[in-house]
Amino acid sequence: MTTSVSTTTGRSGIPLPATMKAFHLTAPRKTELATVPVPATPEDGLLLKTRCVSICSTDISVFEGHLFPPQYPVVLGHEYLGEVVEIGSDFDHESVGLEIGDRVVYWGQTDFEGLAEYRSVRPIFSGQVKRDVFWTDRNFLDDRRAAAVKIPAEMSDLECSFIEPTTGALRSILSNPPHIGDKVLILGTGPIGVIAGRIIKQLFAPNSVVSVDLNPNRNVFAAENFSDHAYLPDELDTAINEGTFDYVFDTLPTIKNVDEDRDPRRMAMRKLKPRGRYVLYGASQEMQKFDTWLMLAKGINIMSAPFDVSSFPMHHSANVIYSAMQILMSGVVDGARLLSSVCRFEDYDQLVSIFENYRSTTDLKTIVDFRG
User: Fold this and answer.
1) In this structure, what CATH number is given to the domain that contains residue 229?
2) What's the whole-model pTM score?
3) pLDDT tens profile 129-172
4) What whole-number distance in Å separates Cα of residue 227 and Cα of residue 211?
5) How deeply is 90 buried, as exposed, middle or buried, from its count of CB atoms within 10 A (0-12, 13-18, 19+)?
6) For residue 223, which of 77, 109, 230, 266 is within the disulfide window of CB 3.0 to 4.6 Å?
7) How confident is the model at residue 6 (pLDDT cuts 50, 70, 90)?
8) Does 172 fall in a domain?
């Protein structure tokens, strides 16, 4: 789909185009397929040709207007796999064994730009310590660099798209791990809930892991993959006594227009033990309700993995993304089972439909395929 005469040449000698196609969000719920310049290769970074991008709930939250980009238009997509087509003149590719044609996945705090035919990145690989910090308009210090990992040949393109979300879940769990023997509740059994549930169940020795979701089909999948019992909200409310759980992992999106007594976050706090731990993962810049009385009465500890790189540096995330890749390769998280559908990037109408219908679908992960 790239259109235009080449104006530059990558280190491999392969001509690169001047322009590319990108999926633009021009306002909440308004998109276009735009022709834009191919980004320049950073002197200390890489230019990547996009291979696959999986759509996640963060993309949907931006699409719906629950998360606010710094400006419009914005190119959505960040669960990304790309092929190195150009290496910056100051990038020490030999120290990380990186060459033209290698595949790379990255993880960044506030990053978009994935749903385009090319993107640039300034990577940090595991073992490196680099910083380029700036203050965002969303109340935290971020890094212009991104944690990254080189993909081994035996890992398939489609499976690679799950490294980024596994990294996000793993950062959160490692920052606030459950204790041995904890009774764990996973709120939401979308992809992140399944990934977090699998990691906790397989690696952190809990007493039990149960889950709750409004979607019966996702509950079936959760029960097959990690959940000792996958509840509908009303079932959880009636079947589980107050003060049962030690640890809640909340992957829920923005919640609106729900009766306060049936709010799943309030329900989960009722089911927590005194001094229970409540780990918040799902992001929204719209105000969400949390029951301060239950927090006070029970002494509930609300926790999260900070975005702020003064607390969780990007080079630490580079270590985590390498471990996330190993978790997928070992089968602790089964990426193949998370994949529901593949959409060709050329099919703009289907891509728009996926964004518009994401909240009502029974699918888990959709991957946008850029490969020829």
Assistant:
1) 3.40.50.720
2) 0.92
3) 999 999 988 889 999 999 999 999 999 999 998 999 999 999 99
4) 6
5) exposed
6) 230
7) very low
8) no
